Amino acid sequence: MMETNSPFEQFEELRIDRISREFLAETAKWATFLSILGFIGIGLMVIVALFVLVIGASTSTSASFAPLGGGAFVSIFYFIVAGFYFVPINYLYKFASNMKNAIRTNNQSSLTSSFEYIKSHYKFIGILTIVMIGIYILMILWMMFAAFGRSM
Known about the structure:
79% helix; mainly alpha; DUF5362 domain-containing protein; 3 helices; DUF5362; membrane; transmembrane helix; transmembrane
């Protein structure tokens, strides 16, 4: 009896040729650049959050309209955004560093790790995008109901 192989089984021994290596090396360089810019952006967000917190605390009065007083609300928001931003940027950086290592040392384990990190990067971005679309939809519905409630 003749054995039939799935077309997907041929990919188990997928090889990376010279051109693919060059593409991956260039991708790793750009990913490193973008992740470093991302880390700088996170650092700036944290500095701004601390600055707003300090300035807000020094200028807050008992009649402050901010729910937490001064710039605490804005600072907490910036810290949360920086925390969410850190996760995909860190995955991107780990992808780049593992890919560079894999290409330099011809290490299959580093190559696999780099692909795992880029998968995690895009998975996080995808889930975050779905959550943000959901929040936008809820906000639109809330505004529609609020507008409808006022017109009555």
